């Protein structure tokens, strides 16, 4: 659903921002349905701070993909995603896929994890500051990850396609936690991830993975999990790749070997502060591209969205500096 509105107010002190056309996509289902409660707040703030702004609201899962593609085709300068990691990722994917290098992604936190926003300096609990950042119009060029292997979202299983990601791709334990969190109705944010993760530390059977780097290195074995990160955070604030930035031209593969439940618990506690990297069961490889092989086509996470790969071997690589994001100054 698209609502058109042209405000009369210009962002204070920023003529260029006032001339930009913004298309804002609201996802009421983000944050496990809590996203609907901030829509009125964000809409009021946006109308106060932006001159040319139109609004769209999703009515079904993944509709932000279609709205973002249409906004790119319609010539908007900034496509703003109001939601969490999944919403931002879907909109970012369509901006990159459009081939337009003159359109920027704007993000307003309204979801569960908000990890990509943390990488850029956004606070999940401060909508006023987020809108002010958008109004300043300051843009940064960031890297984007790309999965060249065809896969489908579980929401649209018949649509097999390559996929861009903003923050992270996750395999193994990560998927078990997302599945468990789906059924946890009374938790949210970092607490949701922590509680469901603690449960799965004693239940998840592990996953066999072979990893090859672009430079020719190979790792193989039974893993608790593997994450391939563009940004530093995941799981509601865990610094899973402590040295990663979204503009370093690399992806960061964090491999955590499988272990007994109590050792898993210790690794989990260390990961909350980024200390897991000191364990001899953890290794992070920084490369521009990886080839990942599994015993069967894997289910995996792309910025919180669970997908199914078409094949057992997957190709993941970084696209340096391809996306402009409206964000606080680094």
Would you summarize the structure shown here?
Helices cover 27% and strands 35% of the residues. It contains nine helices and 16 strands. The model is unreliable at 4-16 (pLDDT under 50).
Strand content: 25-35%
Q: If you consult CATH, what is the topology of the largest domain? A: Tumour Suppressor Smad4
Shape: globular
The whole-number mean of residue pLDDT values reads: 89
Query: What is the number of strand segments?
Result: 16
Low-pLDDT runs: 4-16
Helical stretch count?
9
Output the strand order for the largest sheet.
Answer: 6-15-14-8-10-9-13-16
**Pairing-aware structural class of the strands and helices?**
alpha+beta
Largest sheet: 8 strands, antiparallel, barrel
Compute the gyration radius: what is it?
Answer: 19 Å
Give a verbal description of the structure.
- The structure is a single chain.
- 27% of the residues lie in helices and 35% in strands.
- It has 330 residues and is an alpha+beta fold.
- Helix 7 crosses helix 8.
- About 4% of the residues have low confidence.
């Amino acid at each position: 659903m698209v609502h058109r509105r042209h405000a009369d107010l210009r962002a204070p002190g920023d003529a260029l921002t006032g001339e930009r056309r913004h298309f804002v996509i609201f996802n009421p289902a983000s944050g496990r349905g809590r996203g609907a409660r901030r829509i009125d707040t964000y809409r009021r703030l946006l109308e106060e701070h932006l001159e040319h702004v139109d609004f769209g609201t999703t009515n079904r899962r993944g509709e932000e993909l279609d709205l973002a593609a249409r906004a790119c085709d319609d010539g908007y300068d900034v496509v703003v995603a109001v939601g969490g990691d999944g919403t931002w990722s879907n909109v970012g994917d369509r901006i990159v896929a459009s081939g337009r290098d003159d359109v920027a992604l704007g993000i307003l936190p309204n979801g569960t994890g908000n990890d990509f926003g943390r990488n850029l300096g956004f606070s999940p609990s401060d909508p006023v500051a987020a809108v002010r950042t958008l109004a300043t119009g300051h843009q940064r060029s960031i890297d984007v990850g790309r999965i060249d292997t065809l896969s489908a979202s579980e929401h649209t299983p018949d649509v097999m396609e390559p996929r861009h990601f903003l923050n992270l791709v996750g395999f193994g334990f990560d998927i078990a936690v997302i599945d468990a969190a789906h059924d946890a109705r009374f938790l949210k944010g970092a607490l949701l991830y922590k509680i469901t993760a603690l449960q799965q530390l004693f239940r998840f059977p592990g996953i066999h993975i072979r990893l090859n780097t672009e430079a020719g290195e190979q790792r193989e074995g039974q893993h608790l999990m593997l994450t391939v990160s563009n940004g530093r955070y995941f799981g509601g604030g865990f610094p899973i790749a402590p040295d990663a930035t979204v503009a370093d031209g690399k992806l960061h593969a964090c491999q955590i070997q499988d272990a007994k439940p109590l050792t898993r618990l210790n690794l989990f506690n260390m990961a909350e502060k980024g200390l897991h990297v000191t364990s001899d069961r953890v290794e992070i490889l920084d490369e521009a591209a990886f080839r990942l092989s599994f015993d069967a086509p894997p289910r995996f996470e792309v910025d919180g969205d669970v997908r199914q790969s078409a094949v057992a071997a997957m190709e993941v690589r970084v696209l340096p500096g391809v996306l402009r994001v409206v964000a606080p100054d680094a």
